[in-house]
Amino acid sequence: MDFALFANLAFNGLIEGAVIALPAVALTLVFGVMGFPNASTGDVMTAGAYAAQTGQIAMAGSIVAGVIVGSVASALLALVFYLCVFRFFQGRPSMYALVASIGLAFATRSTLTFFLGYDQRVFPIPLTRAFSFGPLRIVPSDLYILATSVGAIVLVFLLLYVTPLGRRMRAVADNPDLARSCGISSHRVLSAMWLIAGAVTGLGGILFGIKTVITPLMGWEALLPAFAAMILGGIGNPAGAIAGALTIGIAQELSTPFVGFTYKIGVGFAIMVLALVLRPSGLFNLSARVR
Amino acid sequence: MNGSQPLLATRDLTGGYGEIDILTGIEMTVAAREIVTIAGTNGSGKSTLAKAVMGFLPRTAGTIRFDGIDLLAQPAEKRLALGIAYVPQVANIFPSLSVEENLLVIENVADRRARLEAMYAHFPALKPLRRRRAGSLSGGERQQVAFARTLMPEPKLMVLDEPTAALSPAIVSKILALIRTLPEAGVAVLLVEQRAREALAISDRGYILDQGRIVLADTAAALLSDTRMAELYLGHGLTESDKAPS
Ligand SMILES: Nc1ncnc2c1ncn2[C@@H]1O[C@H](COP(=O)(O)OP(=O)(O)O)[C@@H](O)[C@H]1O
Ligand SMILES: [Mg+2]
Questions:
Q1: For residues A139 and A129, what is the distance between their CA atoms, to the nearest angstrom?
Q2: Cα of A165 to ligand 1 centre, how many Å?
């Protein structure tokens, strides 16, 4: 056993988990309120990453400006999807919205590749030297990624659990008709929810692009672990989705010495399936939600 | 009651969830500060009538007027601001919200903090539970949360759909006693109940529904002594085609 190797893999898994946690939270928010697994989430990540990279170059190389441009673009894209498509499937079997979201995923990807091609892109960020911290070799950009993800998640939680808008969102998720009879306009609340989910999703794509590279398939490939994280965490439970993402990220990385790089995604799924067999309501679903 | 305009009035109200009319030709009024019972067997359309008033029935014809406003032209979320609060038959609270959040969901209130304290004074059992998830409460406690929430905005009309269903007898009489006090606070009540006797005992007037039609309409006292009530509740019905209710 090489402790340093595993410590570094675990740390890398933590960063990957923190990135996947963002789309996983978006998936679980949308599922909690709209009741369907939104398969367009992955490609909204991709769109956010491309928008951020384009924005960064347009804004004289400022990565902060790029992050803002990318998050706003993906927020608007998700809102457009809701207003033009998902809105009309409310109250219908969730299969309709799921199929529509798969269609939007393909449409988004095709549009991106039509205009931007298939070449991979990178964020123009200066390379920084890794430093040692105990057994860990840490790249500073990983710390920025981790801090950004944590910051975004804290913001989402504050919004959900401290603000009146968050209370309205949770009320609509619990019982949409009762929320309406309490004077809550579900249309406004849902629009806000889609903006937030889109921004968080896009940020996930941007961080993923900073950690690796931007490709047209990056989001679609990240969708599967994000789904696994959401399911592992107990659907509709944002804190569970984060715990699920960290579990899957770390487990995938730790498995690479044994199963190799190409099969690590399978490990995430094996964990999810195993956990669901043992605990069908999700590993982190402590508060057995009434739904 | 006193010859002035009723607060709520339906005219030839007909409607349903799909093609079939569940409600037919409903003519019903509720005056300000009046308690009106809607009774009838299971499946007679009581909840459907409440939903029509609240704007949740997919298909409606006829009119519902409230305070001079055409209710059917208003979306469901406008009812609260007009002064109509609703306790549905099932799912009458927000289970994942805390007790306090269940009350704070009502935002259209002048002094919300003061109103919240007034509700805790009115329902002292809720105060120690304020941080608890409402979904973890007992049936009686949930009903209190639902009442407190609907009283938060000081409504003119409360639409209560079987507020005593599935509660223990002691709590049923408490809830009915509470409803009885509402007119003094300026609130009219449209009380949907299967327990016709208990409901009529605290009501001014009542309507008996059968297969989506009003088959009896009278003062509560007259209905309580009407022999046809017993027949209806034994399942014989008043209309020829009446079969056992669904
Ligand atoms: N959501 C619904 N969709 C279709 N039919 C319904 C729905 N809810 C109730 N019904 C039908 O409407 C009729 C009246 O139901 P309801 O108003 O709930 O009766 P009550 O409240 O008097 O027991 C019943 O035949 C019932 O099957
Ligand atoms: Mg009913």
A1: 6
A2: 33
